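Supplementary Methods, section 5.1.

A reviewer requested that the exact input to the structure prediction be made available. We therefore reproduce it here, unchanged from the version used in the analyses.
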Amino acid sequence: MDFTYDEDLVAVRDLAREIFADRATTDRVREVEGSATHLDESLWQELAGAGLLGLALPESYGGAGLDLAALCVVLEEQGRTVAPVPLWSAGVASLAVASFGSESQRDVLLAGAADGSLRIALALEEFDGAAPSAPRCAAVHTGEQWNLTGTKAVVPSPFGASHVLVSATGHDGPAVFLIPTSGEGIAWEQTETTTHDLAGHLTMTDVAAEQLGDGESLAAVLRLAAVALAAVQVGVADGALRLAAAYLSTREQFGRPLATFQSAQHQLADCWIDIDAMRVTLWQALASLGEPDAARAALAAKWWCDQAGLDVMHRVQHLHGGIGVDVDYPVHRNFLWGKQIASTLGGSAAALADLGAVLAREEVAS
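The structure derived from this sequence is encoded token-by-token as follows.
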């Protein structure tokens, strides 16, 4: 299978790389981490002005009419610079509205999502160990509307968002629902994550909600989220490897650059192989979206990028020696991002267990 970028994706990659390289410098990231919101709002608006927030949204709402692959190209570039913007979560949420939302939901939300004037947060995880595919947050249909009750954990960057896409289980099974970020029955508890994101724990008590799509929508949103996270992790790992290569090329021991030592070269080669495998499984998952093997491919990408991504982070930090654990040195941020991504939506063990279940069902069906 040919995973070479077409002309559109090359143009998207080059534009995103230029913006992130110029705007998400180490000094700027450090400055944003100390701000009130921990979000680079000026970078967010620049991405919007360049048309990168609406790449996967319909042209009728100001988007580019591309697909998740275009968003993943941007996410990989973001990962290289660990730029503090909620791109993966807002991107998946807005794409879910475009794919499963009603006409009125699309009219209210998508134009603003494309031009950066509003964001949609994504609430897919809970505290009690429930699998993301089987949320314990309850959705009750009263005859006129849905009401949600429960708690969602560590919602990425909800403050400043206008709506939240929430997973919950109703009488017909799990689904996704749309609620505003504030209103009766909605309470937030702010928390800071490993990546310095200001996340929020969301508690809902009989909150009026709108269902998004049917019972299959949650599985599709989880696949989108898994692939998007894999794209960010590819970029984070690739950025870390480049930092290690540059560091080892300039540091010397016994009068020779550390990069000339065979043990260091082997470590870098292992990292390169892992990242290449991560990228292959990512693009296999993108190519399989909408196909019968979509769930299998998305879980394989999630597992590879959780497990191999974290392995790369550990190797790279080891190759940096003592400076690798210096919180002011750039590679430390890559490690923090890689660590958090590797545990989001259950982590590698959960992805592997889910993949095994999918393969078992396919074997029984055949």
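The domain at 121-213 is CATH 2.40.110.10 (Butyryl-CoA Dehydrogenase, subunit A; domain 2). These observations are discussed further in the main text.
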